[in-house]
Amino acid sequence: MIFSVSSKVFIASIGRKVVRCKYMMEEISDDDLLPFGGLFGDSHMARVVSQVIADPFEEYRPKDLMELAEISASSMRKALRKLTRLGILIEDSQDRQHPVYKVNTACKRYLALTMLAYAVVDDRNGTDCMEGVIAEYYDSELRSKMEIFSLTEGEKELTTEARLEAEGDQA
Predict the structure, then answer these.
(1) CATH no. for residue 22?
(2) In sequence order, what are the residues at sequence separation of 6 or more whose Cβ sits closer than 8 angstroms to the Cβ of residue 134?
(3) Which of 13, 15, 144, 159 lies 20 to 30 Å (CA to CA) from residue 115?
(4) Number of domains making up the chain
C-alpha cells in the first residue's frame, strides 16, 4: 500500500488500485496551513513528517528536505535520526557524505500518518476520501487475514459446541 499526497489531489495506491481524492481549499485557516491541520503544532518534526508523507516516492537528501521543511541543519539531523530509528524512513548510506532517505511504505506508522493526512482533509472539506482508502486497504491487505481469523474463531466455537453436546449426551 502506497500513498501520495499532493497539493491538489490525494492518491492512494493499494495493490493495483489507485484511489484519488480531490480536495478543495475554499477557506484556509491558520491551522490548515500547519502540518496535519495543526494537530502537532508547528514543530520541526511535524514539518519533516508532513513533507515525507506528502511524497513517499521521493528520495530525500537532508539539504533538500531542510529547505522544504524550512528548518535548520541540526533540527533536520535530529528529525532524520528519529524517523529512521522509528522505521518511517530508510537511510541509503552508500555515500556517507550525501545520504539519501526513502519512506518505508511498509511501516505501520507511515500508514497511520497517511490516514491522518486524509482525515484532516476530510474534516476540513467534508469529503470522505479516507473511507475509500480504508476500504482498499482492507480489501488488499486485511480481508484474507481476517477471513482466516474468522474461520479459526468459528472452528473454536464449533468445537466448543460439539464438546458441550457430547457432555450433555453423557449425562
Answers:
(1) 1.10.10.10
(2) 115
(3) 144
(4) 1
pTM of structure: 0.66
Contact 163, 152 (CB under 8 A): no
Q: Which helix (H) or strand (E) holds 31?
A: helix 30-33
Helix or strand run (H / E) with residue 147:
helix 143-170
State the amino acid at position 168 in one-letter form: G
**Amino acid of residue 140:** S
Q: Do the Cβ atoms of 88 and 103 come closer than 8 Å?
A: yes
Q: What is the pLDDT of residues 95-123, one digit of tens each?
A: 778 899 999 999 999 999 999 988 888 88
The tens digit of pLDDT for each residue in 125-142 reads: 889 988 988 898 888 888
Write the burial class of residue 170 (CB in 10 Å: 0-12 exposed, 13-18 middle, 19+ buried): exposed
Q: Which domain holds residue 20?
A: 2-170
**pLDDT for the residue numbered 146:** 79
The pLDDT of residue 95: 78
Of 132, 118, 130, whose CA–CA distance to 6 is shortest?
A: 118
Residues 6+ apart with CB under 8 A from 9: 20, 21, 22, 23
